[in-house]
């Protein structure tokens, strides 16, 4: 049987759907007596036990983590690791214990890092489960009792009071001033007034009303701000709105762009190695090379072409990015997320607590005279339920009350002592009346202070009749404030001759003003959004707030254009996926969004090729945070659920920090690209030397131990040092890279091929000339190896910048790189000059003249790259000038 639409269903029908007897009769739902008597006898213990057996406990079950061996298996099951393992096994078969040990050390290091990261994360549903309340006040067997919230069942009658956390999804059956903070689900900073009736002035609630407009429901995990109520449990556990979010949070967000790119690169290298390795082995056999020698030659090729240091480089580069982001208040929970921020093309940001400060503030005060604001501020602070927090001077309570009291105290319109003094009489705010009033003794007089809805308060005041000049001025001011997204509260006051028996409907008051308040934007957000725009990133505000408020806030951020209509959850319901994709391209503000709506937007943007970053702080943001390419949660005001669902946590809750994080993400990818170029070009150089040498009559140009020593000790050290480059300064002036662009783009692949071939052929020529001169084989190999080492030494400095000249960079800008490059040369010299090391690797000492010759040949690769950069810059400038000329002619 399909459950009814609870929020739009009458109480009698709700009771019938829950298999409960008809209500015997309830007093007026607006009175305290209604809350007390509407409960009835509640469920019997036997009925509750049967329902608990049927529906299960009222809690969110945590997902079971994968076994350790499954997680570890994922780290090993990659082409790069598999080939490293094969190379290590083959090396051990050849009894080359040193090389084999180094290869397996790299495998262990890389797999350990990946395993630790994978085991650290998935706590999303556990964090959601923490929102369950330990106890609930329920009516059972005709008595009011407290029971564990986990024992609640559909049909239970629950009582709520101020300060309670709603223990399950409840259909309100009686309410007395109930207001609930639903910001964790809707993003609305203001509490929502609740009632029992499904109609308002004869207008029924819509069945498809957004969650924030379902005024007859109180949802699990939300907080009662004021009032009291009775409600029927209609959903528990995973059937609640909170439970549906828990299910959405378990959505797999898929691999990050960097993981996709590195997987693609690894597969490319693996395929190339298979093809070339088999070809070299077969060619050696055809040319008459013995089986053992052919096998050794193939091993040398695999070892030379395999960029063993690449997994370590990726981890180090991302680790450096993590440290840099942490220093700028962005804590990264998953390593690949460092780079993902840099490739972001769309940022979908929550409003409350992310773009705004999550605190109502009085922005403007309008008075009939346009002068003294004190009377209005005073009334707002004295007709007020905000209280001082027990642990300090901070005010707590209803957001509007806190805002009005804070403004009055800051302006000196009222003192803390006046606020704390007990009133002579008061009538708290009730949604049915839309105003509150307080009678206080001031300077020997009884002063009545009233605040509430503008039209209601105006009706209590003299000179405010409709059509009058003062009334029209008030209406115009009210409309202007509302159009600017402000919540407007009117104030009035008057002196009474004596103390009335009860506070009835006020009359003959003086209208003192309007106070417009809002949750203000964070400082610097507008500028940060502008920087995102310059960086080619589309910023969308996705909020559960009202469309009018969302548009007004969006205008303050520079989002959208005048006249643009926001996208609402209702609009989305009428659009298919193709239509919504098109609408999202031109949308900057999305309002009245449910968690499901946010999740749908994220999925469609990703399906459309976008790299989506989502920011948020509430439970309602968690599914979108989890499904996004990268989720960014607020650390200070954010919920545990949001933080556990996110990849990055901002410790200062500042959207501006995201701009820094995006720049650092791009720096990180640039470092990975530079390091990958260095490894690939050197690997190609070694492959060229080994493959071409295969077709000559000469012996192996390099022994496997030589290649492994150079790749790990020399190339690996310098390659890792490239990960510490600080960027070239223009990261936020570039467009996000294309989705299908690899770790190396076409230009960098071309540079890798040019330099790789040049270094390989140059090394091979040195080896050939040395052999033709009749030098010993060990000396020939040593000359070839040192030539390749010098190529690598100068190549690493050319790789520091992708576009600018190496000579334009500060040589001390990356001291780790300079030190590692010089250390690599020293190590190579030691391994040729120190006999035990030379014998282990197969080297021999060289003369200073030979070292200088190898250095002179090695520096040519730097010259080639510098010439290539000049040509590319010239072509880019020429293309830019041509484009500008065409634009001018248009």
From TrEMBL:
<feature type="transmembrane region" description="Helical">
    <location>
        <begin position="698"/>
        <end position="717"/>
    </location>
</feature>
<keyword id="KW-0597">Phosphoprotein</keyword>
<feature type="transmembrane region" description="Helical">
    <location>
        <begin position="675"/>
        <end position="692"/>
    </location>
</feature>
<keyword id="KW-1278">Translocase</keyword>
<dbReference type="InterPro" id="IPR006068">
    <property type="entry name" value="ATPase_P-typ_cation-transptr_C"/>
</dbReference>
<keyword id="KW-0067">ATP-binding</keyword>
<keyword id="KW-1133">Transmembrane helix</keyword>
<feature type="transmembrane region" description="Helical">
    <location>
        <begin position="269"/>
        <end position="287"/>
    </location>
</feature>
<dbReference type="Pfam" id="PF00122">
    <property type="entry name" value="E1-E2_ATPase"/>
</dbReference>
<dbReference type="InterPro" id="IPR018303">
    <property type="entry name" value="ATPase_P-typ_P_site"/>
</dbReference>
<keyword id="KW-0547">Nucleotide-binding</keyword>
<keyword id="KW-0472">Membrane</keyword>
<dbReference type="InterPro" id="IPR023214">
    <property type="entry name" value="HAD_sf"/>
</dbReference>
<feature type="domain" description="Cation-transporting P-type ATPase N-terminal">
    <location>
        <begin position="5"/>
        <end position="96"/>
    </location>
</feature>
<protein>
    <submittedName>
        <fullName>Putative membrane protein</fullName>
    </submittedName>
</protein>
<dbReference type="InterPro" id="IPR059000">
    <property type="entry name" value="ATPase_P-type_domA"/>
</dbReference>
<dbReference type="InterPro" id="IPR044492">
    <property type="entry name" value="P_typ_ATPase_HD_dom"/>
</dbReference>
<dbReference type="GO" id="GO:0016887">
    <property type="term" value="F:ATP hydrolysis activity"/>
</dbReference>
<dbReference type="Pfam" id="PF00690">
    <property type="entry name" value="Cation_ATPase_N"/>
</dbReference>
<dbReference type="InterPro" id="IPR023298">
    <property type="entry name" value="ATPase_P-typ_TM_dom_sf"/>
</dbReference>
<dbReference type="InterPro" id="IPR036412">
    <property type="entry name" value="HAD-like_sf"/>
</dbReference>
<feature type="transmembrane region" description="Helical">
    <location>
        <begin position="848"/>
        <end position="865"/>
    </location>
</feature>
<feature type="transmembrane region" description="Helical">
    <location>
        <begin position="76"/>
        <end position="94"/>
    </location>
</feature>
<feature type="transmembrane region" description="Helical">
    <location>
        <begin position="782"/>
        <end position="803"/>
    </location>
</feature>
<keyword id="KW-0460">Magnesium</keyword>
<feature type="transmembrane region" description="Helical">
    <location>
        <begin position="100"/>
        <end position="118"/>
    </location>
</feature>
<dbReference type="Pfam" id="PF00702">
    <property type="entry name" value="Hydrolase"/>
</dbReference>
<dbReference type="InterPro" id="IPR001757">
    <property type="entry name" value="P_typ_ATPase"/>
</dbReference>
<dbReference type="InterPro" id="IPR023299">
    <property type="entry name" value="ATPase_P-typ_cyto_dom_N"/>
</dbReference>
<feature type="transmembrane region" description="Helical">
    <location>
        <begin position="299"/>
        <end position="320"/>
    </location>
</feature>
<dbReference type="GO" id="GO:0005524">
    <property type="term" value="F:ATP binding"/>
</dbReference>
<keyword id="KW-0812">Transmembrane</keyword>
<dbReference type="Pfam" id="PF00689">
    <property type="entry name" value="Cation_ATPase_C"/>
</dbReference>
<feature type="transmembrane region" description="Helical">
    <location>
        <begin position="749"/>
        <end position="770"/>
    </location>
</feature>
<dbReference type="InterPro" id="IPR008250">
    <property type="entry name" value="ATPase_P-typ_transduc_dom_A_sf"/>
</dbReference>
<feature type="transmembrane region" description="Helical">
    <location>
        <begin position="815"/>
        <end position="836"/>
    </location>
</feature>
<dbReference type="GO" id="GO:0005886">
    <property type="term" value="C:plasma membrane"/>
</dbReference>
<dbReference type="InterPro" id="IPR004014">
    <property type="entry name" value="ATPase_P-typ_cation-transptr_N"/>
</dbReference>
